[in-house]
């Protein structure tokens, strides 16, 4: 029998009351849960009388397997009496059908057994596919929308206008769906929805309303106290510094003002309170003489100054803008407008929910949310005045066990509490520090409430803390503890990281092995964008992994107390998202590092899936050029580029299928004709088969007759490719079990899955090599462990979408809306929305902290963190600005303003005192972590440029001049090819792509205006008017400002003016050019919808993105005078103004400074369409992602054009 700790014994043997086990990472909670079940079985209890709820099906299966193994171990290894042995053997046979499952699966069993209680048709199927569910959901809303449009309902039109824009009503659709997803996890969904407008129903005086007293004042008090605490922290630092001491009086004065406001907060009206906030004066410190700074460390001074700047922002943004923007009359007026909107929205929501339920029932289907709601309805419903279902389960179960209790939602908690009574109790095990499923409406506050309640002396229930970490080395534990002692508390994180939460080493790691943790900040000062940031980190990660393996880094085997050389399989690369996976696969292949990606992106972009989807598309409709040509070019048919070109030359105007038929009539190439004829017969066979048989059988027939399965098996990664094709076949089989029918609908279904990034749940590699580096997201890593964890891209920004949206939801506060004033067209955030946003920000940062905890606690011996920062010195100075509160935790403002994991870790465990010999290396010995700045070398071209410019002209002889003249006048047969550079800019060839479907280029392509063939060089510099400012110069300068402006917040005119002044001082923009720049137009851009997209995704934005791509010369020069060079390729280079790389798609922007008006804009759009089309082709090829949208923005008239829609 294992040696259990005292706390583990409590968790295994205590009973007779509810028990909450807070089990830290590596504490063996699953082992404890299994041992508790075994002990109950030893007491002659039956597995039938236990409900064990797990979070996933995989966890349920693992628990059953481990339980069987443990029981067999007892039967075989322990001396037990015959009766107990026979009882345990019976339990083994019962385990497969025992109630060890997810809560959803248990709810399904309730419905199947007691469906008659609520008159439910038992012949239903589970709607487990998100794509099918979303299609039914969209149909439901379409029906509801049509209902209101047919009625010409004015309130609905106003609702649509408020939540959408003038281009579509997608905004309202999103609000309705988001509201549904939030509300449905509440067992009293209708009641909660009907109460959404209650917090908006206020009258004067506002200060006497329930909303004001219960929600507004507590949040305001919290905000004021936060600033007071920051000021006190700044005073503590400033008092000890001869320079910063001048700031003490500044912060003391502010504390006095805020304290007075706090004392009178409930004694004054809202308008009086508002005025007192507006009257706050933040003084400036006494100026410090330059001479006083000489020879003195100014780090503390800079830190205190930064704190003052942060507080100044909080006073304006967080207080005035969010809570006191309007006076009492204006605030109440906004609330009254909100009431009308919300009431209509709730009406629409109810109608949508009924229609959605109707469509599901018509399809004889239920989704996962229905399972929970129907189960609750069954448990609370009576038959002959008896709650038969509830009585059955309460009598059946002697104990209810919940694994991963931190991730239950409110609905699931209601189900658990319903099943419990005085005769059975609930055993809950989990770790609130690992609650990372907020996007599934997990409610960690439920765990937190019980954690607090169960500690009270008067509470009969029990809290057990398991803090011993049997996974990690002491160095890893110390590093993690050092971080979370500084960032976790009840206000942010939902729990204090005290002695009950700290990790305690439960291993016996050798002190001789390297278990020190590493943090690297990769830095470069040139060509910094989202792509280069990511690639720089990946390159360094590969380098560090190679170093570990090549140096034979020693891994400690805790079980056998020995060391061995590291293997690739000892290393796991974790990241917050899957965005890095494509680059990782590519770069690690070049570095010859074996890699296994468990959740790779772009499954649909694999060659074999592209071929098969193209084949299915043309079986459905052969008059689709792109999929048709894809199949013809594929191994299925095997045509080459010359064959395809020959076919197209026969008929340039009709679709490609018609051209193929024309070729059969007009041409004499028997070989190509035979290929086309064979293909037509094959295609017709498949089209006929598709009308008579299932999609799955069609797919298999194609596999068999084309040999595609065998072909891809012989390609690199062949087994995986074969598995991918099998997955498509299996998806088709499961699709046909739904009510969706037909090939066309199946294709639409798959395309929707691709858009939703579902990737058909890509099959695990069947050729997974044991010795590979594992790559996965933090979510996917939960429950796993690795000797070395490399946490990549820790500088990636947190997801802020949960609290920056115009419409937000909260269990208590209800709904926060943004109201559009139809007269002024100004959108106003309601106060409720601001309060919810503040609350959501805390919950978002809390969950990001928990994700950090999960990532770091996967490590057994070493943690390596890699991030990026252009200016590391500035970054680390910002870490020193964080102040420590009395409880030892960093101030709330610093934690809430953290934008990534790099900041959270840096300001927790590193500061300027850890610097080694003033070098770019920092060491915190107590936390066992070393930080190093890794600067990339950048080659300067300045010296080369200087040499060229300083070269003096040289005299040449007459003979040399004659030779040059002969060469110049030589009539070369292929002169056109010589004059056409192998390198072309996009601006040179943009006209080619004005119409993506235009196969004919006119002679104007070779004209002087926009020609591709250069007959002469441009005028030398001395012939140009150097005093005149050109439009191109103004355009370039404007682009420079847009490239350099800080987009982490909305840029105002002052920000652009400061940047312009800096650029003038640096000599990058001249005074003459600066006078021509319209800064107001730049400000307006960032106030537009497009500007909002950039600001919202600022971490994924690359500005002035350079690219180069090879294109066939014949594609560019179809009217060339010489056709001998059709096989040549041209290198096309360009720079894209803005690239936003989302997880599964790309958005492009291009600014234009042209002097356009309403009449000339259409011509301008035509002029630039080709340029954007080429940009889209290039970036899509480079990043292996589709371009979702591409925009032109004309700065002079502040007008955006969506070319994605124009091309449709």
From TrEMBL:
Annotated positions binding ATP: 23-30
Species name: Companilactobacillus allii
Domain of life: Bacteria
Catalytic activity: Couples ATP hydrolysis with the unwinding of duplex DNA by translocating in the 3'-5' direction; ATP + H2O = ADP + phosphate + H(+)
Lineage: Bacteria, Bacillati, Bacillota, Bacilli, Lactobacillales
MF term (GO), any: 3'-5' DNA helicase activity
Limits of the UvrD-like helicase C-terminal domain: 487-783
Domain UvrD-like helicase ATP-binding: 2-473
UniProt cross-references to InterPro entries, sorted A to Z: AddA, DNA_helicase_UvrD-like_C, DNA_helicase_UvrD/REP, P-loop_NTPase, PDDEXK-like_dom_sf, PDDEXK_AddAB-type, Restrct_endonuc-II-like, UvrD-like_ATP-bd
Protein name: ATP-dependent helicase/nuclease subunit A
GO biological process: double-strand break repair via homologous recombination
Cofactors that this protein relies on: Mg(2+)
E.C. number(s) listed in UniProt: 3.1.-.-, 5.6.2.4
Stored Pfam families: PDDEXK_1 (PF12705), UvrD-helicase (PF00580), UvrD_C (PF13361)
Subunit architecture: Heterodimer of AddA and AddB/RexB.
Function description: The heterodimer acts as both an ATP-dependent DNA helicase and an ATP-dependent, dual-direction single-stranded exonuclease. Recognizes the chi site generating a DNA molecule suitable for the initiation of homologous recombination. The AddA nuclease domain is required for chi fragment generation; this subunit has the helicase and 3' -> 5' nuclease activities.
